[in-house]
Amino acid sequence: MPTRTHTVITAAAGAGVIAVGLTGCFAIGGGGSGPVGFDGVQSATIQLESVGTFVSPEEGGYEAAGRGSGFLITPDGLAVTNNHVVTGAGTIKVWRGGDTTKELSAKVLGSSECLDLAVVQLEGSGYPFLDWRKGDIETALDVYAAGFPLGDPTFTETKGIVSKAVTGGETPWASIDSVIEHDARIRGGNSGGPLVDSNGALVGVNYAGNDALDYNYAIHRDAVLDVIGDLVDGEDVLSLGINGEALVGEDGTGLGIWVNSVKSGSVADEAGVEPGDLLTTMEGVSLGVNGTLTEYCDVLRTHGQDATLSVELYRPSEDAYYRGQFNGDPLTAVPVVGSGSSAEPSADTVTVTDDSGAITFEVPASWAQTDGAPVTDGNGTTWQSASASPDLAGFQGSWATPGATVYATRGAPVSPDAAADLVATGAAEEGCTSTGREPFDDGFHTGVWEIFTGCGGSATYVVVGATDYAGTYTTIVAAQGISDADLEGIDQVLATFYASY
């Protein structure tokens, strides 16, 4: 899998230890009355250092100085780089052409996490700048990758050819339709730097590489030109304001989108997303399934970044799930069962639906027996229903087997309390001890919930009665477990259940 060609120099607080990781690249173009030619590419290429606090899944929170490359596209200081080089940074420093004696400041105008692009504005004017190639970009075209690899201020330029003129760009941190594959060697620190032809005209923006296979990738000129106007105007494109990447489990199964940093004032920031969060679903779609940003960006392409989008996330720092909306209701912590249960998402889960496809929730993969048939209560109300357990007969007939059932019906034929009573009354009659009925609010639903302990001697029984925020449907959750692992499974149900009406 390609890796980001962006270098992060990490300074652990109080440790004085420097570790070099990924690095990005950026380029600036010619001055005078027109763009520079091939001999002026260096003068129009810049190195950026983005300083801020980032959270990685391996190292946790740290203050980092991430270095990348970029290039100028106008004499008044407009420059292009990668989103992952600059988004979430507290400050951005720039050096041009490898000259470290003159430090420039820069401001991010617009960005896109899906396209891994950003436009920054440098202070001053009269800069050399690069122009875009006018002709076709074809296989075997001679190209040159320029930038500052490994965070070194020494300018480098490598030669190669275009091996694929157009290919897909699905990576852990981007989802791009038009990408150029080439063999002009790039390294960490080249992210955001220019890929130019023999005349010094821009072919693309370097953003990823695979050292083992010597594959190098650049965002196609046409994909950049499609959005550059919006970015220059300060409009983000296919963006909620995160610097993130898909996270996978040890078995390679996708867990979600890890948030390294968040752009202040962005949609994600206003919703309450924090660095170190793991986005698990948007609009009911599981994220990062194949270890890429594909699903995340497909949701944005389908609905638009300004739409109200449901989101679920896991926050490791609190060991808690949150649910809410982008451009809507802010994130709310999902209630969990007991203090000893971990809500951490597992790759070993499956999605359960009822026969109509309205109800959806996630359970441990071991709860492999399912039933999606509707049921009718004693008052004649029909409920869509989905159950899952390792042994449905044992779950439905005893306290010795874990499992869960989620019910839903259109509108609000009964109150949340009355809905909970439909599945809670029997628990009290069978010797279970209630911890008391409490308000329930998970960011999507509001109502009541109740936990019963000592059922059958050792089982925990959880009941929820609620309506969605819009009052579209009433829902009931009834789940039971014996072990800590079972309680984690119940937490998974509570964090993911919903109905589509």
Automatic annotation (TrEMBL):
Domain PDZ: 234-315
Record flagged with keyword Protease: yes
Top-level lineage group: Bacteria
Family annotation (Gene3D superfamilies): 2.30.42.10, Trypsin-like serine proteases
Entry-linked InterPro entries: Chloro_Bact_Ser_Proteases, PDZ, PDZ_6, PDZ_sf, Peptidase_S1_PA, Peptidase_S1_PA_chymotrypsin, Peptidase_S1C
Molecular-function annotations in GO: peptidase activity
Protein keywords: Hydrolase, Protease
CDD domains cross-referenced by the UniProt entry: PDZ_canonical
GO biological process: proteolysis
One Pfam family per UniProt: Trypsin_2
Matching SMART domains: PDZ
Family per similarity comment: Belongs to the peptidase S1C family.
Name of the molecule in the record: S1C family serine protease
Source organism per UniProt: Agromyces larvae
Lineage, broadest ranks: Bacteria, Bacillati, Actinomycetota, Actinomycetes, Micrococcales
